[in-house]
């Protein structure tokens, strides 16, 4: 039996998942990492801990599967996009900034004001707070000594690939997703770097590869750390939003993928690059393979925060997410239910955006708060879908993946609130599965993405919109937007106060 190992390096959890050639999940092991906030708006991680977690997850996954490591034919890794993972010239980690960071918000606004159209003309996105080159420019401006020590700027999954193989390499999906490639051709460009204030920084960029290219093999040191066999092929890997779409069965032009994970991801596949300045980004992952993406850090990370800070405040709960779903199940939706803005980690609408519950009354309980949180997350997904629709990308149905797809309530809420049929994937770990499919293509097990997806993915359930709920959600969506605009001045004042601390 041949197996494929898919790795999913997220902002909070590292997962190692083993699949057979039919996509059956044979074993999984996840290790939770730690983030630090050395200053308001800064979100960082210890990269030695990240690699230690990766090694522990891979070794435990293989042990759980009860297979011989030599049966693993290939390894693929998907990782959260953007953020900044810096190595020095000797290959030692010197900085790990996560994609929830917003320290560079003012710099992003400054760059956009100066040359926003020029940015979009080249890379089909504009600077934003946690974007990799904007963060690198921030480091150059504010921590010049550290910038001077830098040897390579990587993304999250590239750091794992580097530790597995010793190769400093990235793939076109991640590098286009972080605004470092000219599109549609998918290449580095000195003029683009200069726009970011990074003239002469080309030596910091890793070698570019196709996602399914075998870029290296597991080294002896990595084999000792992970339990993998030395020489096991490792592909370049994927921007995780694309990997999750592949793992949910989305590949054809016009297919839509919605991911309710740490980030709100809303994307449509196409054969050409969509040029619309209102759209967040376009990523490339192959010849004539593009994904138009609307996203922000406004999705299930809000629920994770609620569970950590509220549900578990007096100690661990056996299944806190099931508890949250049970509380929601007891609530009958009403027109005067409270609202929630899911901006705990900011918003692309403005670095000043903050989260908050609004319209609470004495008769509301925790179930109402949780339903408002679920609804607010869905409304931000709906806002992103509206942007895609205005760009000419009609979305008639979508596959929902990510942690939010496992809720018994969220998929139906998405169908009702957005007004389209929602399908969920059979696989729970779609990001790791997409990376495993890519590894299968890279080693020749599958001749195309389509062949691998047909062999390894299947749908689970389909949720049809309830027309009786449409008026309810339309009215509340309008209130959600009006409240957001009314709060902007207050949020701006709060941000100014934070900046002075």
Description of the molecule:
- By secondary structure, this protein is α/β, with parallel strands linked by helices.
- It folds into two domains: 3-248 and 427-461, ATPase, nucleotide binding domain (Nucleotidyltransferase, domain 5, 2-Layer Sandwich); 301-424 and 466-499, ATPase, nucleotide binding domain (Nucleotidyltransferase, domain 5, 2-Layer Sandwich).
- The chain has 16 helices and 21 strands.
- It has helices at 47-65, 105-123, 132-142, 144-149, 156-165, 172-177, 190-195, 220-226, 240-247, 301-311, 320-329, 366-390, 410-419, 430-442, 449-456, 467-499; strands at residues 3-9, 13-20, 25-32, 72-79, 84-88, 93-97, 150-154, 169-171, 207-209, 214-217, 233-235, 238-239, 256-260, 264-270, 281-286, 289-296, 339-341, 356-358, 398-401, 422-425, 459-463.
- The strands form six sheets. A seven-stranded mixed sheet has the order 15-16-14-13-19-20-21, sandwiched between helices.
- Helix 11 packs across helix 12 (366-390), helix 13 packs across helix 16 (467-499) and helix 14 (430-442) crosses helix 15 (449-456).
- The radius of gyration is 22 Å and the shape is globular.
Features:
501 residues; alpha/beta; Nucleotidyltransferase, domain 5; 2 domains; five-stranded mixed β-sheet; 16 helices; 21 strands
In DSSP terms, counting alpha (H) and pi (I) runs of 4 or more, how many helices? Answer: 16
Read across the widest sheet, the strand sequence of neighbours is 15-16-14-13-19-20-21
Largest pleated sheet: 7 strands, mixed
Number of domains: 2
Give the percentage of residues in beta strands: 15-25%
Name of the top-level CATH class of the largest domain = Alpha Beta
